[in-house]
Amino acid sequence: MSDADIIIVGSGMGGATLAAGLAATGLRILILERGERLEDCAEARDPAAIFGKGHFRPAETWLTPEGARFNPGNYACVGGNSKFYGAVMIRYREADFAPIRHMGGTTPGWPFAYDTLAPWYTQAEALYQVRGQGGIDPTEPPRAADYLFPPVPHEPAIVDLDHRLRGVGLHPAPLPLAVDIDRWLARAATPWDAFPDTTGGKLDAETAALTLALQHPNVRLQTGVTVHRIEAEGDRITGLLTSAGRLTAPRIVLAAGAVHTAALLLRSANADHPTGLANRSDQVGRNFMNHNASALLAVSPRRNASIYQKTLMLNDWYLTGGPKGEPLGNIQLLGRVSAPILAAQTGLPRALAKLIADRAIDFYVMSEDLPDPDSRVRVRGDDIVLDWRRSNWAAHEALVARLKTALRKAGFPVLLSKPFDRSTPSHQCGTARLGADPATSVTDSYGRCHDHPNLWICDASLLPTSAAVNPSLTIAALALRQADRIAQEAA
């Protein structure tokens, strides 16, 4: 007898949401997670411990193509990276699903339009209790209804920022957030962005989706289990070789994240599939994308007494703004960068860091990284090799410049910016992209592998393009759509 009807590898945004979508079917679902649950502790709200000492940062290392080791900053725990996410749950814009000409090239588009995913976005927003307000952002795609919950309130400094930005002709809007702000602040007065959720204040993959799934007796979670290889005979997946032994199910779903899912497929090569499973197209591991991102601190004589700050976004240059009308990207606030965080991230003396942090409002500037087949994940023995080749960087520099010009007009005379590097994961995606053509994609539009009818993928690997917004809601919407498809087949 098989160990389950469906085994899901990974409990992050994709895997947990898929389990929630399937839980009511009665199918026996086994979720495998290589990490453990995060327990509450003093360090969970200590910025010096998190950002200075790296208390929660895993010891895992990957390789550059040249063989240098680096810590990628990905987390292995129940809920995955969502335990530390900024809780931004924003829809891809309608234009993101079609080919778009960027400064750095043209995106391939998706095999379906925004309308296909729209109802699943609505369901995902309800599942994750997203706080937001429709009708304000000029790039917002069509919605069947407004959010079920009002937006997380701006703090006074952000109310003032909103007015200043409007005064220079921009269109700030509330950032859609999966945060129960009262519950979060009841634990401690800190930001949530990059802080671990150990008491349920964020609606992450564990607290929202997995908690719902595990209320059903047919759903099980097994932690501390690493999947080493996938077994296949011909086009059928026959089992998983794991640290807990061999496990089998009629359907296997990989939801281990864009890098680990690709690495597992490549590592599972056999005589029938010498270049890796699901890789007849030679696309597994290719098209790795990681948003072009920078932190920007806008400093003025005014004090910023905000605690969490991250409630506002700007999309004025999302669809246009380049020299020939090309899109530039999304701007949103970072979680409040306090003096301990700034000192830890820059090496500045604590007194100088406090002087800057007390008077700064902190922005996250994000531009689309375009798919490139030579930007890829490989395996070298037991090691993961990440050959990330940035693209579209000129668009990102243009976006940073646009924001700086606007902020100076809005009364922020000192502007400090710094790009993120490969040690800061900025929404990794694209290594097993979905598509209609088996020659150019790894899965069909639902996430079923073209080469293996009982193997599915349900994480950021599927994304054909990165767009220029946080991918969590899109991953969740794809997972709910996949759950519906599997449920129909199993009925």
CATH fold-type name: FAD/NAD(P)-binding domain
> Helicity, in percent?
10-25%
Secondary-structure class:
alpha+beta
Q: How large a portion of the residues is in β-strands, by DSSP E?
A: 15-25%
Alpha-carbon distance between the two ends: 20 Å
Which term fits the overall shape? globular
Extended strand count: 20
What CATH first level would be assigned? Alpha Beta
Which structural traits does this protein have?
491 residues, alpha+beta, six-stranded antiparallel sheet, 11 helices, globular
Report on this structure.
There is one protein chain. Strands 7-14-15-16-13-19 form a 6-stranded antiparallel beta sheet, covered by helices on one side. The protein has a 5-stranded parallel beta sheet with strand order 8-2-1-12-20, covered by helices on one side. A 3-stranded antiparallel beta sheet has the order 9-10-11, with helices on one face. It has helices at residues 13-22, 47-52, 114-127, 156-167, 181-187, 205-213, 258-267, 339-346, 350-357, 393-409, 472-490, and strands at 6-9, 29-33, 62-63, 69-70, 101-102, 105-106, 173-174, 219-223, 227-233, 236-242, 245-247, 251-254, 292-299, 312-314, 330-333, 360-367, 376-380, 383-387, 414-419, 455-457. Helix content is 24%, strand content 18%.
Question: What's this, in brief?
Answer:
This is Dehydrogenase. The protein has 491 residues and is of the alpha+beta class.
